[in-house]
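If I may wish for something, please sit down with the protein I am sending here and say whether tokens and residues agree:
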Amino acid sequence: MSRTADAILSPGERITMRGGRMPSPEAVQSTGSHEARAVEPGRDPASAARVAVTSAQDVVHALRHAASAGLRVTTTPPAGSGTLLLDLSAFDATTVSPADRTVRVGAGVRWNRLVASTAPHGLASLASEDRTRSAVAETLVGAVSPLARTFGLASDHVLCIDIVTPDGAVRAVTPEADPDLFSALRGGAAGLGVATGMILGVVPLDALQAGSWRFSPRPADAVADLLHRWRTWLVGLPESMSTRATVVACADGLALDLWFAHAGPRADGTALLEELREVLPAPAAVTVADVHRRGSRPHPNADAPRVGFVRGALLDALHPDAVDRLAEAVRAAPPGTCAEVRLRGGAMSRRAPVPGCVPGRRAAFSVRAVAAAQADADTLADALDPWATGGTSLDLDDPRDARTARALRVGWGEKAFSLLTALRGRLDPDGVLAAPWEPGPVSS
């Protein structure tokens, strides 16, 4: 299918569907000072054409228009040349049902708003640490919340998904109505349809301690020593405690943040942290605090995720040599480059009540490299190749390249990958939807 962008919207222009119809190129030209023209290769991806849709039928018409014009469609920036970025912000309804512990949420709702909606009821949606993201979009890639070891992935709690598929169907997908599609959407949604909303289960949260220990910069070998002690503390850690380590390259060494979230009795969380405090030097800053049940923020309030180019990897174990290699690789990276090592397992690793297709959920650790350049993120991730599974988890910020596609196939496994490929071939045979995974190149 040809992917030209003749006579599409001006880069950066936001156009609203009118009566379920895409505006014509002539109408676009007359709506403002911009002249309709093709999206040029090499242009800032954020400047691709953005189309605001306000209903499921608008999405149907946008997909049909894209197919007839030889364009691709995405709902997640960045959108490259020849791609329409659908703006789903109009799908902004949120309805909490405290009695049955569910919330209906539209695709335009971000985590921070969803958290604020469920908080007064003492309920927790399993939000990721980046509260600015779409709750629906991130849930469908298998969002790893700070409480995932305790309650599982957000996608495990999905009850119904409202979706528009490229064949023009508007569906409410449930495990009873369409078990294969329901499974595939939770982990492979980007290539199968445009999700406009969902019904999501939320969990009661009675007690929570969360926050970080921040250590001042020090040499790489000293940071590696701290990580070794943290790694030993992880052995047998109950799933009520979640934790990750972030190592950041600084001009004067490496900085280390250890982050914690304990869902359960305060005394239990305090005892676990005291065990670690006995083997580590005093941190430069401590932000661990109680988060009360019906308070204003019933979730751990982690630091905002670092922004940059990323590369992910999964590990079945955190080998001592991998810790040393990681510290040395961060030391050799440009200042500001960081590596996040997250303990997984617990409820994350167990089979979901209704199986889905989230890749790599059984891995023991995930590693995420963040850098100012993709090459630097790749180099940092490559340092752990001897211990990596070859797979990756799925994240909205992942680079959309052949390397990600190969790693996702490993992370999914052949059974899930075959299901995704078969459904994509049936629902989107012309490849209208852009996705971080592309079955053709990967399987060749």
Q: What stands out?
A: Residues 1-15, 18-47, 295-300, 439-444 have pLDDT under 50 and may be disordered. The first strand starts at residue 14 and ends at 16. The chain has 13 helices and 19 strands.
